[in-house]
Structures are given as structure tokens and as C-alpha cells.
């Protein structure tokens, strides 16, 4: 590594939101060396959230989702080429085209991809989609604009629910199949998921819960699906929304701490190797990272959040060009938002890290509320429905480890905060959709048993 951290060669693998923000931050922090960004897609970094909202509704096209640059990162862009490995001894990133890139410091920001349908032949049928890339968004938007008779959405997490919402907004018939008891239950727990189920049905969604899709049918073109309860759903478009897979396979021989939940790193974004030893020249940021957070029992968190990708990329970039004493930890409180079925849902903290909840403001009946989550007597999360102005207050309670239930001043009616009910976060293995925040230790309300 060069003596001057502001010089040398930095390679960023992942021409993503996190990759772009890290590159910009490196230059803002005074890095003057060579900077290379590698991306397996042919496009410059683009924004993914509009793909399940504005693009499907025809309010924007997929090719207009490119991310604005805060500044020119003065980088060499290697787009449309996949990284296939890291040689840590030679300090080189290996590329699919046979070339390799030397680095002094490496940032891995390869993110996630859509979990595919398990049967490749069924997944290849015309009319079967996942939604992750620009091409996915453009193809699905075109098919929905053609006015299919029915759309089947498999999985009722945030992406599946937003797609179903867009379909209903366009006047399309839609069936949602979810293995768990309700939509969004993996992210928000039982109480709010019941409201989500009511909202979907009130908006005309044919919501089927507690069922799995056992087969997609059709002869080259998708015509319907068989469900585990014996019923059949005829449809001409199917969207598979079964959560995300972290892009880590290319690192299988790297000796890094890589697994299905991502690449483990410390709070300063430095990657661990497979023996739990921290590296000093490889950093991780964005959806592909797993990092410890002191507010949540130092559990390793895996997040699929826009804001986390930006904040973690900025911390990683700062630490890559700063001496040890000036490095800082990534301690941002996770935040997330979704608009669906006329509701604006915003989350702060980790709702799955909870044992009890209270409705601190509003009510389920009014469909306007603030729900506070607690674990072992401490506030750990809050979710608002059409009440986002309260979120900053609850974020402060989480950051200061405020007692749960929150004091009367945190509620617009004091009695609400006295009625605690179990958060009832289900085991993720019983869901079609994955949580957007995953605790990668054990769930807090379940003791680990040794058999």
C-alpha cells in the first residue's frame, strides 16, 4: 500500500448506487490516484426503486433512471464486464474477459440480484418476469401496458406489494400468492401486516396467503399457476418477487468471509477473511455487506435499503483514504420507505429486532399511525403509516436507547403507549418474501437450542 493514502490504485467492483457514491466521496476526500469501476451491466449506475413504481405506471421509462452524479469521479469505467475473483496475494481483481486489475485498496459493492424462480424451464416461459434490472423494468412495463387479463405476483414483500399496487392502479386484475400469513409480515410483524392485507383486498387484490405456487404452467408462454391448496390461477403475466440473492459467488475462492447473507465486515466497512481476521485493504458497502450494529445487540445486519447503500459507501470511502485514528464507524440507523395502495409506509430502526409493539399515535382503523417496536425494554424501531413527520422523533428514541414502551410524551394519547402486544415476527423460512433488514444471528424472541 502506498504511504500516501490519497494516492495509489483503488478498484470498485459494482457500478451501483453504493459504487458511484463511494467513487464521488473518494474524490471529495482528496483521493488523487487511479480509480476504476467495474460493472457487469452495460449501463452507468441507475436508480432501482422507480422500477417498481413510476416505470411500471408509465410515469417514467427505464432508461431515464440513471443516477445523477454529484461530481465527476474521474474514473475508468469498465461496464458490461463481470468480475470473476480476487487474488488477494497478488492484489488483483480478475475479470471475465481474462484481464486483471491491480489494486492497493478494493471496494466490493456488488449488491443483489432477484431470486429466480426455482424451475429454470418454467422461469424461461414468455410472460414470467423478475424485477431488478433496467431491462426487467422495461420489459414488465411494456407487458403491463398491453393490458393482460390477470397478473400473478409470487411473494408479498415490499417489491411484490408495490408491483401489485401498480397493477391495480392501472386497472389490471392481480392475484398475490404468499406462503406466510400476510403481506409484509417478514419486515413489519403481525399487526401491521394485517393492515397491509386489508388494504390489498380493499383495493381489489385477490390475495392468497398460506399457500405456495407449486408449478407455473404454459407451453412456451405462461398461462397460469398451480397452488399448494389445489387451486389454479389463470394468468398471462407472472412476476416472481421472492426476495434477493447477494452477488457473492464470484468471491468463493477469495478467502473472504462470504455467505448467503453477504460479506462480513467490521463497523468501519473493512472485510473479514474466512478466519474472522479483518483485512486492511478490502472494504464492503451496500446490499452485499453484513456489518455489526451496537444498537441492535451487535448482531450482523444485512440491509437492502437505498439510504444504507449511500451512507455506508461514504463511510467506506472515507476510511479507505484515512489513517486509523481518523476512521469512523458506519452506525446509521436503517430507514426505509414504500408507497403502496395509497399508503406511505416509512420505517426506522430494525422492526424484526423486537419482542413487543405499541401503537403510539393514530390507529389501525384510521389507517394512519405510528407503531413503536421494543426489545427487552428498549425502543428498537418505529414504522409510520401516513404519519412520517413523527419519524425523526422515534429515530432519536432508538439512537438514545430510550425505554420501551415510550413515555406518554411520545404519544398523542397517553393510554395508547401502555398497551403492549407481541410483535410476532415470523421465522423467515416460512415466508415467500425476505425481510429488507435481516438479523443474521438468531431472532431475538427465539432461544437457540442445542440438540
Automatic annotation (TrEMBL):
Cofactor: FAD
Keyword rRNA processing appears in the UniProt entry: no
Keywords: FAD, Flavoprotein, Oxidoreductase
Top-rank lineage group of the source organism: Bacteria
Regions that span the bilayer: none
InterPro entries named in the record: FAD-oxidoreductase/Apoptosis (IPR050446), FAD/NAD-bd_sf (IPR036188), FAD/NAD-binding_dom (IPR023753), FAD/NAD-linked_Rdtase_dimer_sf (IPR016156), Reductase_C (IPR028202)
Gene3D superfamilies: 3.30.390.30, FAD/NAD(P)-binding domain (3.50.50.60)
GO cellular component: cytoplasm
One Pfam family of this chain: Reductase_C
Domain (Reductase C-terminal): residue spans on this chain: 336-412
GO molecular function, one term: oxidoreductase activity, acting on NAD(P)H
Protein's name according to its UniProt entry: NADPH-dependent 2,4-dienoyl-CoA reductase/sulfur reductase-like enzyme
